[in-house]
Amino acid sequence: xxxxxxxxxxxxxxxxxxxxxxxxxxxxxxxxxxxxxxxxxxxxxxxxxxxxxxxxxxxxxxxxxxxxxxxxxxxxxxxxxxxxxxxxxxxxxxxxxxxxxxxxxxxxxxxxxxxxxxxxxxxxxxxxxxxxxxxxxxxxxxxxxxxxxxxxxxxxxxx
Length: 159
Description:
Blueprint: H1 5-9, H2 19-44, H3 49-61, E1 65-66, H4 67-73, H5 81-90, E2 94-98, E3 106-110, H6 112-133, H7 138-153
Helix pairs in contact: 2-6
């Protein structure tokens, strides 16, 4: 059996120990390659992927959200949501407002700068999605989504 693409890419001499190992490592390799391209794009706008994610969440909600709610909705786990919001506030992308009913709760809101910046990013991001994965057919994309979602189902039961 000839070596798979990942085995050739990483110049692995022996086959992978299992199909599960090869598939998992393919997901990691693909994620790394995607992340590099997303980071380059966001860097053009002075953002990190996590900062963009915060802005995307706020725009999607359409109103200010508490920091903890934003953290719960992030695509990737962020250990320091407060620091992330600090940097966005310093750059003028968001503002903070203390809740009047519960002074412990801090709401985060988009600024006009953020709305304009997000609008500028929309098309380049859609273009990047297409460049990265648009060569797959709609049926293949649906199957990929299904398989990735299925693979995440067991994560809650694994420590």
